[in-house]
């Protein structure tokens, strides 16, 4: 598998262990969106309405690109670009409007190509593309129903059922309280 290029926005690198696009999709209240803007908005954080629009723009393509599909389901598109599958098509829909600036940088004593995106929307689109590239997919947490990413490069096993340890422990305690399995 080819290595994914380094994508940077405001000093932050694309990481699938805690992807921002999943955090934004899971932001269900205005308070969640304000917390997201405070944490990840940079020098000029976007407002709640702007984040709602961005969440709406990225949600469907991200879920389409990263839902678990069998090889038969991820068929080649008849009307799409040559050889493009559903997951690549959805990711590319996000990337079409994402300007990037390329350059060279040294990291850990090695030269590498680095791409910088101009805004949060571009960074989120590249996170989705990185997830598609490595073969990660999404699932809903069995405890809280939040979306989470699992599979290669995410730090989560492909059998993960919970979005975080808190939900896993809460589910175990609920099973114990019901007299179920450990």
Structure explained in plain terms:
The chain has 182 residues and is an alpha+beta fold. The protein is 41% helix and 16% strand. It has one domain (6-137). The chain contains six helices and six strands, in the order ββααααββαββα. The termini are far apart. The model has no long low-confidence stretch (mean pLDDT 85).
How is this fold's topology laid out?
Blueprint: E1 6-9, E2 12-13, H1 20-26, H2 30-40, H3 48-66, H4 86-95, E3 100-107, E4 110-117, H5 120-134, E5 137-140, E6 147-150, H6 165-177
Helix pairs in contact: 1-2, 3-4, 3-5, 4-5
Cα-atom Rg, whole angstroms? 18 Å
Order of helices and strands: EEHHHHEEHEEH
Strand line-up of the largest beta sheet: 2-1-4-3
Content of β-strand:
15-25%
As residue ranges, the low-confidence spans are: none
Provide the helix percentage.
40-55%
Assembly form of the protein: single chain
Features:
182 residues, globular, two-stranded antiparallel sheet, alpha+beta
Would you summarize the structure shown here?
The chain has 182 residues and is of the alpha+beta class. The protein is 41% helix and 16% strand.
């Amino acid at each position: 598998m080819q290595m994914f290029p380094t994508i940077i926005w405001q000093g932050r690198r694309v990481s699938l262990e805690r992807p921002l696009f999943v955090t934004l999709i899971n932001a269900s209240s205005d308070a969640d969106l304000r917390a997201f803007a405070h944490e990840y908005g940079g020098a000029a954080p976007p407002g709640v309405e702007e984040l709602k629009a961005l969440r709406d723009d990225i949600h469907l393509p991200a879920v389409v690109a990263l839902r678990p599909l069998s090889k038969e389901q991820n068929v080649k598109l008849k009307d799409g670009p040559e050889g493009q599958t559903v997951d690549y098509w959805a990711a590319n829909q996000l990337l079409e409007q994402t300007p990037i600036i390329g350059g060279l940088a040294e990291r850990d004593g090695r030269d590498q190509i680095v791409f910088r995106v101009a805004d949060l929307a571009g960074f989120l689109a590249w996170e989705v593309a990185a997830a598609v590239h490595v073969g990660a997919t999404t699932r809903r947490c069995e405890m809280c129903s939040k979306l989470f990413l699992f599979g290669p490069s995410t730090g989560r096993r492909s059998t993960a059922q919970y979005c975080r340890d808190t939900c896993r422990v809460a589910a175990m305690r609920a099973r114990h309280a019901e007299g179920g399995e450990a």
